[in-house]
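Reviewer 2 asked us to include a model.

Predict the structure of this chain.
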Amino acid sequence: MVGRWAYARFEGVEAAAWRGAPAAPLRPHFHLEDQVTLVLRGARCFLTPYGPLRLTAGKAALLPAGLVHAAPRHEPPCDCVNFYLPAPAPAEGPQRALAFDLDGAVEELAEAPLRLRALAAAAGTAAGAAPPSRLVALAKPWLAEDAAPVAELAARLGLSREGFSRAFARQVGVSPRAYRLAARLTAARTLLKAGTPASAAAYQAGFADQSHLTRSFAAAFGTSPQAYRRALT
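Predicted model (structure tokens):
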């Protein structure tokens, strides 16, 4: 369908594909899996806390689990595929998005997504990664659980609300409020994949109502909650 990402299970792996016209931009979000993106035609750009990452045809990228990223509109018409692979333990995985060359094997790898794990792991090992700061390590679980206002979390860390928000945005790439929304979207995505109806997923993930989830989900993942659930269950 024009204007929508197509999700499916492929060889047991969740996948999403875009083909043709420039895609709509995707707002900041993250995944519980490692995302490996293959660009088959055209180009795609990601925005990450470490700066933009641009991929052209024949290139791929590993976006580690938990890394907040967004995608502006594709520059030319683009064909690309995302695979969401089970992530290794956090200490073993890279923190940065990593680009790597497919060495002309795009079609072959697109037909065998699990083989991408070896390539992605090699790219991550070569680049290395810095561990998350103490602030981020403490703040992310709190924000994901929606336990209390940001001001309370800042006070627990000995910071003003403004100081905490600036430090968090500098390291994570988005404000605490935007991260909390991304965490809710990730929770809703997990529920939908397990077969939970969209209305129940909206309530359990902390959205005001199903319409709020639908708008936010489409802006981040390029499809509706209902279409995503049908494709993955």
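The chain has two domains: 6-127, 134-232. The mean pLDDT is 82. We have added this to the supplementary material.
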